[in-house]
Each structure stands twice: as structure tokens, then as C-alpha cells.
Design brief:
This protein is of the alpha+beta class. It has one domain: 4-Layer Sandwich (Phosphatase 2c, domain 1). Helices cover about 35% and strands about 25% of the residues. It has a five-stranded antiparallel beta sheet with strand order 1-10-9-6-7. Strands 2-3-4-5-8 form a five-stranded antiparallel beta sheet, with helices on one face.
Length: about 250
């Protein structure tokens, strides 16, 4: 193998290791709920990302997103997003400001050139949960809508804003939802909806039905979700990154 090919392979391997370091090793331990995660990448480098940040006042930031692309450029953008949001959480206390500042941050990088400008963009769901009131304030920047199961009712946290990194002056708005004991909140990426068995995709209707009919603990729920995708006939590894967070209040 030629030296350039070796160098390229080493670069991908290094970027993959850095990407794995950025993803949380375990979900946070909370006294108000239980959290489980699933992350299955299509290739060594993925576009999905998620994390949890404990704020100085005790509130919990949870975010999940999908960067454009599945390559070294996307891993660089992921690193930028992680670093910016973790720094931002030290001084900013609301989703609107966090997402607005992140958007301007990414747009400035995109403005430096036209060849890779589209890589500095991402869908993003970012919410802040107040353990005392169980109030969830969030921005859904072009991301697939998280699902909340309360009893037999299913609620969607729909898009409130465009994806970050696209528009210099994006119209960012926030949503608010009051969680209740017994709620199950599912955040996920579009790789789950788009998982294909060669004939059809898993789709939103199947995911809705799965959430409504699958009980048990949060850990069992994640195992069952992975099994449902396999039983559907989705590829392993998947054709697109599949990530999910389940929060049992």
C-alpha cells in the first residue's frame, strides 16, 4: 500500500478514536430519572453525536444531532460543536442563546470558503431539564422530533428552528414541555427512521408503535430497539448512523 493511502488510513483511525472519546462513556446518574443510550455507526466515522452536561445550577443539558456527512470533515465539525456547547453551558442558561450562538459560530467557519461550507451544518435537538420542576425547555433545530410517551398518549417535540450552520440570522425559537413522573422520552436520529431492509424503511409509524408497546426498563428498551431494527432486516452495520437516548422520568 502506498504511503499516501497509509497516511489517509491513519488519519481516519485517529479521527475515529477522537470521535469515540467525545461520545459519553455512560449516561449521567440522575435522581429524577434513568437514561439509556444506543449508538451504532455506519462507518468508522459517523455524523451522529449526543451528550449530557450538568449545569452549575443542577439542571441537565441533553443534546443529540447529526452533522452533514460521514467523514473526517464531519468529525471536525462534531468536535467544534462539542467544545462550543460544553463551554457555553458554563455561562449560558437557556437553549435559545446556546443554539443561537452555536449557529453563528458554525456560520463563521462556513464563510471561510465555499468548497466545504455545507459541512459546517447540523440538525440538533438541545433541551435543558430542571429536576425540581421537570420543566423541559428545548430548541429543535431541524432534527427529527423526539417522542414522549405519557400513558397511552404520544407527543412530538417538533421542529422549532432551522438546522444550525445554514443561515447567519436563523430564526431560533424555543419549545417547552412539562415532564411528569412515568413519562418516557425518546430522542433519536434519522438513521433509525431510514433503516432499510431493501424494500422499505423502518419509518416513523413503526417507531411510534414500538415506543407505545415496549415496556420494561430503560436498558431493556434499548436492547429491544436494537433487536427490532435487526428483525426488520436493517443492515449491520447500518447504512446510516443510528443513535438514540431514552429517558424514563
Amino acid at each position: 500500500m502506498s504511503e499516501p493511502a497509509n497516511a489517509a488510513g491513519d488519519g481516519v483511525a485517529l479521527a475515529s478514536r477522537i470521535q469515540q472519546l467525545l461520545l459519553p462513556k455512560t449516561p449521567p446518574v440522575c435522581n429524577w430519572g434513568c437514561i439509556g443510550v444506543m449508538n451504532r455507526m455506519a462507518t468508522a466515522l459517523g455524523g451522529d453525536y449526543f451528550d449530557f452536561i450538568s449545569m452549575p445550577d443542577g439542571r441537565e443539558v441533553v443534546f443529540i444531532g447529526d452533522v452533514t456527512g460521514h467523514d473526517i470533515q464531519s468529525s471536525v465539525v462534531m468536535s467544534l460543536v462539542y467544545g462550543f456547547l460544553h463551554h457555553c453551558a458554563l455561562t449560558v442558561d437557556d437553549p435559545f442563546t446556546m443554539v443561537s450562538q452555536l449557529n453563528r459560530f458554525l456560520v463563521r467557519f462556513a464563510d471561510r470558503g465555499t468548497e466545504l461550507d455545507h459541512h459546517f451544518s447540523s440538525t440538533l435537538f438541545l433541551g435543558i431539564i430542571d429536576p425540581a420542576s421537570l420543566r423541559l425547555e428545548y430548541v429543535n433545530a431541524g432534527h427529527v422530533p423526539p417522542l414522549l410517551l405519557r400513558g397511552n398518549s404520544l407527543h412530538r417535540l417538533d421542529t422549532t428552528s432551522p438546522p444550525v450552520g445554514f443561515f447567519a440570522e436563523a430564526e431560533v425559537t424555543t419549545g417547552c414541555f412539562r415532564l411528569e413522573r412515568g413519562d418516557r422520552l425518546l430522542l433519536y436520529t434519522d438513521g433509525i427512521l431510514d433503516a432499510s431492509n431493501g424494500t422499505e424503511t423502518f419509518g416513523a409509524a413503526r417507531l411510534d408503535a414500538f415506543l407505545a408497546t415496549t415496556g420494561g426498563s430503560y436498558t431493556r428498551f434499548m436492547d429491544e430497539l436494537a433487536a427490532a431494527l435487526r428483525n426488520f432486516g436493517a443492515g449491520d452495520p447500518p447504512d446510516d448512523d443510528c443513535s438514540a437516548i431514552v429517558i424514563d422520568v
